[in-house]
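Quick note —
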Amino acid sequence: MTQVARPAPRRLDAFELPSEPGNERLALARVAETVQGLGLSDARLEKLKTAVAEATMNAIEHGNGNRAEIPVEVEVTQQGDEIVVAISDQGGEAHPSDSSDSDAEEPDLLKKLDGAQSPRGWGLFLIRNMVDAMDITTNGQRHTIWLTVRTGGAAHGEHV
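Predicted structure written out below.
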């Protein structure tokens, strides 16, 4: 059986931002600039920007507790037709966004309006529906959300 070798990931950019509200806009702008020209449609780029902003806000607020001295780390890599954005904080094992497993309750607008669910909790749901894949890892205190988008085609029913 022959296997096709995947190209090694190529680092496109890596940077840190202070954990201050509003810095998600800096992250989305820099990621957008980094992936410009890599084959994402305008609609897919907007979805990626939304996912990056949401994930960065979660890292700032939940992971690092809005403590400016603890940076959020962002790395953008490309492997074949996949662009991967990794956003890391120091939230560790107690990170609230780890509820991304199958036991987590899906946000329900009617329940939220009725007060049966917290008005919060849309972040991971939104992120998951903006990208082709979302993974979360925790290694000691380091908590990372991995956002993957493919450049070569449509995702989530989008027509190109």
